[in-house]
Structure formats: C-alpha cells, structure tokens
Queue: 2 jobs
Job 1
Amino acid sequence: MQVALLAGGLGGARLAPALSEAVGRERLTVIANVGDDLEWMGLRVCPDLDSIVYALAGSWDRERGWGRVGETFRVRDALGALGAPSWFGVGDGDLSLHLARSLLLGSGKSLGEATRNLSRRLGVRGVLVVPASDRWAQTRFVTRDGRRLAFQEWYVREHARPRIRRVVLSRAAASRAALGVLRRADAVVLGPSNPVTSIGAILALRGVVAAVRRAKLRIAISPVVRRRPWRSASVAHHARARARVLEAEGQRDRAVAIAARYADLVDWFVLDEADEAEASAIRRIGLQVVLADLLDEERLSRTLLALLRRSQR
C-alpha cells in the first residue's frame, strides 16, 4: 500500500518519522507545503519542507520546532550587527542547505529535483519528500490594519499577532511529482497541520483536490488538542497562529470546525482522545471518527496503520 501524507512543517516533522516506521519507509511519500517559502538574502528557504527532511534524517530540533539540533547562529548575529534584517532565524548549518538548494535551482533543477538530491545527502532513506509545487506559491495575508504580509513576515517577524482580514492562498500548479504520488496512492492522510495555511495551501494548488479524491482511503488528522497542555513554546505559537487564521475564515479553533472543512474530501477524521466530546458532532457531519493520542506519534501511527489495514480487507 502506498501512502501519501500532506503536511506542514511542525505536524509533518513530528509525524513522518513514526509513520514511516509503521507503514514502511518505501511506502510513504510526504507532500510538503511550500506556501511558507521565502527568499532570504537572495536564497530560497523552504521551512516546512526542510523541517520534514531534517526530521526524517534525524537532525531536526524537536524542542524548538524548526532547524537542526545543535544549531549555531553566528551568521545571523553578524548580519544583524551589520544592520541587515535578522528577524528570520537561519542557523549556520541550515544556511548550508539554503545555499546548496539555491545553487541547484540556479543550475536549472526544479525544487523537487533539488529536494531529492539534498534529502539523500542529508541521510533520508526510503521516504520520498516532495514539494507540493515547484513554483513560487506563497501564502499571503491582508491584515485588519490594511497591510499585505507574506506568511513568514506575519508568523515570525510579527509573531502572528496582527489580526487577519483575509488569507490569500496561491492557485499555482501542483508539482508533477506531487500529482503523480497522489494518483498512485492507495491512501491519503491530511496531517495534523494548520488546515488553512498548510493543508489548505496544498489543497488550493491546481490539480490536488481531484488527485486526492482518487485514493481509496482518505483520512484527516485533527491538529487541535484542546484539553491537554501544550508541550513546547513552538506548539503554543502554532496553536495561537492557527486560531488567528481560522478566525479570519469565520471559524473557531475546534476539531469539529476543522472536520467540517474536510468533510467533502475525506472519510475518516482522527480526533484526540481527550477531545472525545466532539466526536458525535463530527459524526453528524458525515465523517467516521477514530480516537488516538495525537501527542504520541508512535501510537498515532499505529492507529493509522490499523485504518490502512482495515481498508484492505
């Protein structure tokens, strides 16, 4: 069985390694959001894509929620001392990846080709990581005070504080690789990532929704765990940002609201055990609900594996 996981950075980086062990490395492909990408000092930076690659390579800083373990920031600090913008925290090791990727892109390679090359060199084995689009497909915001901000400007520089009037998702073409993976997939999993700016940004790309619908089994995982404390500052920041974005969509940061967004695309919704009280409302939307510990990626992966096996009977 071939499984396609659609994911953003934090949710994808946390789930992909455990899921790859559960279903088999050769059977999993991760389609990563590129709506968060930015140009930094002339370099192409892909935060979600890179977090997932680092996690699969065993070098992701799980506590911080981005970058590499043991990272240093001498270049960032030196740039700041020279008066250059230093709000985006690119580490020294991370910088080497952005330089190498930009060289490959400059030589005519696509983002997907560059990602395959660099993933292999970083030590990713078996699992394929594919950018959702090979084109620039940035997510942008119109804030309530009238500013237009790219995702990282709002999320990092502004600390996700400005209230959002409108979310603008790119309608660029999905990458051929991503569409090919989806057409061959027996199961598609919408990861526990932001339903608007991560999963929503992937689904907004041309061709993706139609390709997802071809899969026999389609599962969405709730990114919301309401009745348990946040584990880290990065998770708390993600949760606050998700609430801000959903507010702009006229929705609350609740599992049932997110399930409703996916109701016409998936059949199963994975809900945290602590939020079981919302299960009946989600079933009324027309989705089948399965409970899991969403903060334990290994247990969650075993739950997903059980669903995959059930669908093959």
Job 2
Amino acid sequence: MDVLNKKDLQKLREEHRFTLENLKKEKDIDLKDCHKLQKYAKVLYEQGKYKDAEELLFRLKEILVNEQNNNSDLMLQVFWGLLACQILNGKGRDVVENTTLKKMKDLINQRYNDEKITEFQFIQMNTWLVHWILVYSFTNKDVQNTSLFATVLQS
C-alpha cells in the first residue's frame, strides 16, 4: 500500500484524511485491505518483528478509528496486537495505558453491553488483559505500574 509511506501518511494526517472513508474514495482502500494489513502485522509479530508490527497496527488503528461501532471485531484484533507489541517493545506505562489499554477496555465493555459477546467472552478478554499486564509487570523496568491493574479491574 503506497499510503503507508511516510510522506503520504504525514500529508493525510495533517489534512485529517487518514480515515477508511477517505482512503476508500482517494486510494480505493477498503475493509478487506485493512483485514489483510492486520494479518500481515500478525505475520510480522510471529516473526519477532515487533516494532514493524506495532507501526503497522498503529496506522491501522488510525485508519479504523471511526469504524469502531461497525467493525469492532477487527478493531479488537488490532488492539490486541498493538498491546502485545507495545509491551514487548518496552513502551512506557503511559503509552500502553493511554493509547491501547483504556481503549481496549472501553471496546470490550461496549461489545458486552451491546450483547455482541457473551459473558464468558467478556470474562475471558478481561483475563487476557490481566495476563498482558502481568507480562508488562515482569518485563518492564517501571515498577510503578499499579495503575494498569486499576484500569483493567475497574468496572
């Protein structure tokens, strides 16, 4: 996708046109392409290329920001990958909490409240969030990370 080069990306961001709707009109990029990008990011992740995967997932998150209600499954997959990459790349607590964790928690709660996932799936996803926070706790040098647990455990 030529839209991912830094020059085009910066221009689209500055003009507030880095959305799926605009990319569909201007570059003929649709939801299928977003699914392909997510799968490619997963391949990068599985190859241990966490920084490349994180960059791709972050851009994909930006593209899909307005699609949260219509494509929450894809958004959640993007957030799971982004959370894992941020933790494995040693990002700081603020980045993990503010760019991914809170938004994931909100999306999971919204999906549960909208009855798009079962109670079991809701509990399972929250358990995975705790798992990733534990991974963060044991791999990050930031020992003041109790607020991440508070973010996950709040109702």
